[in-house]
Amino acid sequence: MLGAPPLKINAHVERIPTGFEISAVSVMASGEDAQNAIMHIGKLRKEGIDQLQKLLQQPDAAPPGLPVNGLINVLNTLQMQSEGMEVRLRVVVPRDVVMALPSVLLGR
Q: Radius of gyration of the chain from Cα atoms?
């Protein structure tokens, strides 16, 4: 649970030469809520990386074609900060990760 929900979210995706840049800014009710959200997001990011690293240890457990290393890199490069009541997130998702996901999700 991320704690208090944001009052407002503004997000956009931009195509860049290497893939997609995703940026989001959310406005929280207080600076404390913003800091708590950053802590929770950071914890979830770490848990995601840990689970993906477990898949690297057991390759048969991962769905075929899942770009595990690519997803770990995406999570490692997630930038996040709180500034006053705002939570700012930015991540670049490489083209090869984006292209691999539909076949993994659809089981092809």
A: 16
